[in-house]
Design a protein that fits this description.
The structure is a single chain. By secondary structure, the chain is mainly alpha-helical. 51% of the residues lie in helices and 8% in strands. The protein is built from five helices and two strands, in the order ααααββα. The protein has a two-stranded antiparallel ribbon with strand order 1-2. The termini are far apart.
C-alpha cells in the first residue's frame, strides 16, 4: 500500500471506520496508478519528496472516495436508495444528494497537481534522428 490508515490520519484526514478507510486507500491506489501510467507506487516506495507527494495524493483521493461512500450510507450502514417508476419504466439510484457541492476545493486538481509535482505525469517521448 502507498499509505496506511495511520499515515492517512497523521496527514489530518479523519477515518471513523478504519476498515472503510483501508478499502478507500486501496481504491485510491488503483486510481493513482492508472493516472500515472504505473509510476505512482514505485515513486512512493522510492521515498524522498516525490514519494511524499504521491502519498499526499493518495490521501486526498482516498478521502474523496470515503466521502462519497459515507454520502451513500444511512446511519445504520445501509445504502441509501431511491426508486423511481414512470409507467412501465423504473430505475433505482443510490444517492439522494451530491456531497461534492460543499467541498472547498477540487480534489481532482489537487491529486493531479501532486502527481505532477512528483514527476509521475510526465509522458514525453524520445525523438530519434
Amino acid at each position: 500500500m502507498i499509505i496506511t490508515v495511520d499515515e492517512f490520519k497523521e496527514m489530518g484526514f479523519q477515518a471513523v471506520d478504519e476498515e472503510l478507510a483501508a478499502d478507500c486507500i486501496k481504491r485510491a491506489e488503483f486510481v493513482l496508478n492508472a493516472l500515472s501510467g504505473g509510476k505512482a507506487i514505485p515513486t512512493a516506495l522510492a521515498g524522498g519528496s516525490a514519494g511524499d507527494y504521491v502519498k499526499q495524493a493518495c490521501a486526498f483521493q482516498a478521502n474523496a472516495i470515503m466521502r462519497n461512500e459515507n454520502a451513500l450510507r444511512t446511519e445504520n450502514g445501509e445504502l441509501k436508495t431511491e426508486k423511481v417508476s414512470i409507467g412501465d419504466f423504473s430505475y433505482q439510484s443510490s444517492a439522494e444528494n451530491d456531497s461534492s457541492a460543499d467541498e472547498p476545493f477540487d480534489t481532482n486538481f489537487t491529486v493531479i497537481r501532486l502527481l505532477r509535482a512528483a514527476g509521475c505525469l510526465y509522458t514525453g517521448t524520445e525523438v530519434c534522428e
